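User: Fold this; tokens only.

Assistant: Input:
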Amino acid sequence: MSTKKLSKEEVSKLEEFQSRNNEIVVNTGAAELRINALKVQKEELGKNFQILQKEQAEFGKELQKKYGDGNLDLEKGEFTAAE
């Protein structure tokens, strides 16, 4: 079997391919880590949203018990009783 020497340009091109390949692999891993972090953040936000909805519903019941049925104008801070 005979051995032939590659040109400097060919070796350089192959090294460039290897370097670009490594960069893509590393960046793919980094992207996956960011995706996982965002999934965790999304789950936490979902839990916080559920807590907020529960708090809003409970406060709404308190206001209804205090003021009865009607409409609330948050901008004016006024309650208008239903007729």
